[in-house]
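Q: Fold this one first, please.
A: Sequence and structure below.
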Amino acid sequence: LAYLEIKEIEELFLFLEGLDNSKFQQLFDEIAHENLYDWYNKEFGGEMVWLIDSMCRTVTFSSSKELSAIFGLAVISSFIEKCYSFDKGIMEIVNSLLKHTKTKVNYGAKVTSIEFGGSKFLTIENEETESQKKINGPIISTIPAPELANIIDDKSLSRALKKVDYMGCGLVAFETDEKVFGGKLGAIFPKEKVSAAFDSTARFGRNTGIEEVIIALIPFKGEGELNYPKLAIKSLREFDPEFETKIRSTTVVEWDLGLPICSPKLFDIQKEIFNSTPKGLFVVGDFMGLPSLDASIETTLACATSVEKHRSVSYTHLRAHETSLHLVC
């Protein structure tokens, strides 16, 4: 909010506050196929585009040159509007399906292929055995687009799914002995590739003596092995030259398929996926909306409603592994 004193950011926020649903839809039709970087420079100027980049990286891992302008505006709006919360959002997905259907969960099985024809068949790998199972009810997929593309036998759908581009992300969590940033929690927007957030409220149940948790996000795309802690420390030294000496512990997690890139072409790809999906298969997840936890929830809610409407006795749910950042279960 301190940046509201800068004219172009103030104008951007005033513009966003004036958008209602009908105006947003009209704007969607106008700028969905334009990238955020070009649109922002045209409308507001480029002095603070680094801040726009950093805000977008914090939520999407992608830069303003990669993102659709309409999605970028939705992301920036999320900093000043109420969105699905991170902790309640994940469980909302699970509860939505369970509320509408009865389910039997089969853990430890890996689906290696899905065949569509007169009937639906799953090839299931469980420990050292492999078997084929006929499926009567609908199949609901919440796995990443490239993973589904690799196991589906429908060439048109597989081809469309492979067009969805992803940005990977490395996450570094630092626990510190002393506070590095003022306040209880907040986001940090360096000019470097790293984005970060901090929390000193102790809501994560940390060990005694820990004053602050700092989460750094480092996007990557086919860049090979990166030293995430080193990159994060280098960036955070801009705010505190003694930052490295205050670190008590470091945790690193890497997601190869972090989030789909909401490029201007993604909306056409979504239509292609929808039109190519065989009857009896529901493809839902963050890549089927404006890529985010919100999209995961909304597409899963729509799927659950459709399954209930058809009064299906059972359904088969393909889940992503817990190491995926895709917040769909």
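Q: Good. Now the second chain.
A: Here it is, same layout.
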Amino acid sequence: GDAHDLERSLAERGFCLVRGIPTAISAAEFEQHFVHKPLKGLTQGFAYREGAEVAEPISEPSLGGAPVPPELAESAAVVARYYAETVAAVKKALPNLTAAVGFNQVARSSAAPPVDPVALNAFDGNIDPPAIGGVHTDATEESGFGSATAQFLALDQGALGGHGMVDLQAHRYELYWLNLWRNVNPAQPILNDHLAILDRSSLSRDDVETHKLDFDGYQIEQLLLKSHMPHHRWTYFSEMAADEILIFPQGRGVAERDGPGEEWRFEMPDSPHPESIMHMGVHDPRHPEAGRHSQENRFCAIVRADAPAAAKLPLGPRPGPGTTPAATPAKL
């Protein structure tokens, strides 16, 4: 559908599939830089200047906040090109996108050996197996939105001492902590181990529970499904090609201020459905020999919300703690 349909699907169902994103990553580059040297944890920011249709880098690539080693510079350049393509998908779904920061790149392959989740490391350079049957979110909606607010404040030139990289002139922005999922094998569509998304409109807060997980030396909070129910609506997209990107939030909300230089206020949507979207890998026994090679990236997206085409998130007070999440990035 068009941008309005994609935006509405993100808000109501919790996901959208963006098609027609041209890829400049060749099969040879995919093999060399994504399979043999996956730069997990690569961070890079992009911004759209007023009226611009092409994203401009606003930061150099880094690994865990450190400069990319010279031996990985070529891979970082290829991944940066991949990031720019991925940001184009966010722009297509959220036309008023102002800036996006990509972090925590993870490569997965059906051919990868099983791994203990506790032993996972965001910077170990290994390819992980798909999370088959493991229904989860990457964060709670509070921690996901907290990551987005932290990135927002770090980017804002008018906040935190004025050391940011983006001139945020509007007084209202929508903030998204997004997961972007893509087939990165340009030679073959995904034939098995698909990613399934649980339609958030079919999920109530009573259906989920908070779980603490030790990951990469940190303890994170995520949501798990208590049990499968007949009313839960699952969706997957068969034969996803390299020019298609699945987008789903792990937290979202609004940043608002009264005027230039004023303090930002952060608020999450008032909704009976969780804002962190449940997902899992699903194996199709009809195609036992087939698999997938995928890439998932988490992005903080900042969308100007005072323009006419911007989506309007339904906001209101939420019961209990977490109405204004602490601006602390989730460690994933």
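Q: Anything worth noting on the second one?
A: The radius of gyration is 19 Å.
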